[in-house]
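Appendix C. Worked example: allantoinase
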Amino acid sequence: MTAPDAGERYALVVRSRRAVLPGGERPAAVAVRDGRIAAVLPYDHPADGAARVDLGAVCLLPGLVDTHVHVNEPGRTAWEGFATATRAAAAGGVTTIVDMPLNSIPPTVDVGALAVKRAAAAGRCAVDVGFWGGAVPGNTAALRPLHEAGVRGFKCFLSPSGVEEFPPLGPAGLAEAMREVASFDGLLVVHAEDPGLLTDPTGPTYLEFLASRPGEAERAAVERVIALARRTGARAHILHVSSAACLAPLEAARRDGLRVTAETCPHYLTLTADQVRGPEFKCCPPLRDRGNRDRLWEGLAAGTLSCVVSDHSPSTPDLKVPDFAASWGGVSSLQVALPAVWTEARARGHTLADVARWMSEAPARLAGLPGKGAIAPGRDADLVAFDDTAAFTVDAARLHHRNPITPYHGRTLTGAVLTTWLRGRELTPATPPTGILL
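Step 2, the predicted output written as structure tokens:
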């Protein structure tokens, strides 16, 4: 706890008997000045604020940081967009997103394209927004300028991305990109599936699609990235791990001190292949069996997987066709990621402090955002009032993202976001957009 100066008055004081702080959950009063946390005080401290909120037993979490969001604007704004995506984020307790470089046109593969993306986002964001650059064949010379222009790192695919304007890197291209990124201590974030182990689905069903993208394809690609990280010294992060087969090489890399981290997503932790009802469940890599899901939770508990982020990848309804071989692969979950994860985490004995570490602290660290990720003095006053016992049934039509499609529709989840504050300002659907482009 920190003590204020005598007679201090704050813009906002939020009290909770269950504040999730870096040291764990405890009673606290969080005092805010100029958009930052000025002090974390005992719950009953008589700190004075222009605005005062007492949550009682309702939990106070740090704002979530979602480093895997496909906003798709400009170019495919009908799929999503900065206004709709960031409203959904705010409603779900996410106060910072980092936008992926593909599915927008142009993709963010050079400084000019980044400027186009930033112009599309300016003045439209309800929460703070950062940007990933892209590493594609032929743009190695653009990576350092993008890094200097402020991208958080570089996304690449090792297998086809699904859009022709963002092609994958082959083995030589991946090695070249990792050497270049290592030269300025940047970060490469990798969609890791080995194209040589992927096949075309033999039919339209989900099981045929699942068989076409085996877990061994993920593991082989992860092992390639780890070998190059060992050789080049580059920092690398494995995106959306769906297969527990990846855990052993990732844990070995961690024991060896390599700078390789990995994430998974709410859908891989909560949904399984036997629950698939329609194309809203399709994603790449795919949902797998229940035993695999259990092993992903073990990897998360062990620290082999450090982040849980949404991979929110929406499309228009016409692209979600019943034929799983032809349907767009992407899950829409930005607004419900926190209750989805909490519903399963609490059933497995995890705490809200664990969830805050996976969904706020670790993603902020990954993206190099020292002002985010924790309720601590000096950090941005990004806060979430979260009722961890409230149950609700997801209605896709009531979510804020652009198209009413999600595999969570009709699913009962536990945990409701009551209030979200961005730098000490309460966010509602009517709040004018004040998010900053990071």
